[in-house]
Amino acid sequence: MRKLIIASAAIFAVAGLAACGESAADKSAEQQADALEAQAAATPNEAEEKALNEKADMIEQQAGNADGGMTTANTPNTSPSSEAAPAH
């Protein structure tokens, strides 16, 4: 019984460390995406603005999926079909 308790505590500790690591990666990706979005807003070229915004969305989406989908609440939906879908 004591071994089971120790093993359970170790699993929770490792899970906590993994969550901290993802948080740092998510923050870094968010900073990169923000920089790209600022660059997109500053450009007068619409095609370049769209490309930069798409790249920023991709970075945010990849960061949100880095943990295997555990934090999908922070993952932006960049699917083209989601924009055309009717609201229910």
UniProtKB/TrEMBL annotation:
Organism (species): Brevundimonas lenta
Lineage: Bacteria, Pseudomonadati, Pseudomonadota, Alphaproteobacteria, Caulobacterales
Keywords, comma-separated and alphabetical: Signal
Superkingdom in the source lineage: Bacteria
Name recorded for this polypeptide: ABC-type glycerol-3-phosphate transport system substrate-binding protein
Compositionally skewed regions (Low complexity) per UniProt: 31-42, 71-82
Signal peptide: 1-24
PROSITE patterns reported for this sequence: PROKAR_LIPOPROTEIN
Region (Disordered): 31-50, 55-88
